[in-house]
Write a structure and sequence with these properties.
Organism: Murinocardiopsis flavida
Order of helices and strands: EEEHEEHHEH
Number of strands: 6
Radius of gyration: 17 Å
Pfam family, one: Y1_Tnp
Protein name: Putative transposase
Strand order of the largest sheet: 4-5-3-6
GO biological process, one term: DNA transposition
Helix content: 25-40%
Shape: globular
GO molecular function: DNA binding; transposase activity
Number of helices: 4
C-alpha cells in the first residue's frame, strides 16, 4: 500500500493558480536611527499584521532590532509586492508617529519614518524553516 499523500499547507490554490510565494523583507528607519524599543517593535508587528490581513497576506514571522525590522510574508500572486511594502511602511509610520510621538521625535525629524529603500528577497530557495529561524534569532533590544 502506498503512503497517503499529505497536502503541503504552504501551497495555496486560487481560481486559476496554484502558488506558494514567500518574501523576506527588511525595513530600516530613516537615517538608520535606532528608534525601536521592545514596545514599539511589538506595536509595529501588530500594525503590520493588520495591514497584511487586509491584503490577504500572511505575516509568518516578524522580528527586529533597534534599527531595522524583518518580515517573512506568504502572499498570493495578485499582490504587487511594492504596493504591499508601501502600505506596510505608510500605515505603520502613521500610527507609530502618532502613538509614540515624543520618543520618535528624539530620533527622527521631518515627515518620514522609514528609509525610502527596502530589502526584498524571494524566500523560495532556502527552506522556510531556515528563514524563520534567522528572523527569530535576530536580537531584540534589551
Amino acid at each position: 500500500m502506498s503512503p497517503r499523500w499529505e497536502p503541503d499547507p504552504d501551497i495555496r490554490r486560487g481560481r486559476s493558480v496554484v502558488h506558494t510565494l514567500h518574501a523576506h523583507l527588511v525595513f530600516v528607519p530613516r537615517y538608520r536611527r535606532g528608534v525601536f524599543t521592545d514596545e514599539i517593535l511589538t506595536r509595529c508587528e501588530e500594525i503590520m499584521r493588520q495591514v497584511c490581513a487586509k491584503a490577504n497576506v500572511e505575516l509568518c514571522e516578524f522580528n527586529g532590532e533597534r534599527d531595522h525590522v524583518h518580515l517573512l510574508i506568504h502572499y498570493p500572486p495578485q499582490v504587487k509586492l511594492s504596493a504591499l511594502v508601501g502600505s506596510l511602511k505608510g500605515v505603520s509610520a502613521h500610527y507609530l508617529r502618532k502613538e509614540y510621538a515624543d520618543h520618535i521625535k528624539r530620533y527622527l525629524w521631518g515627515e518620514h519614518f522609514w528609509s525610502p529603500s527596502y530589502f526584498a528577497a524571494s524566500a523560495g530557495g532556502a527552506p522556510l524553516v531556515v528563514v524563520k529561524e534567522y528572523i527569530e534569532d535576530q536580537k531584540r533590544p534589551g
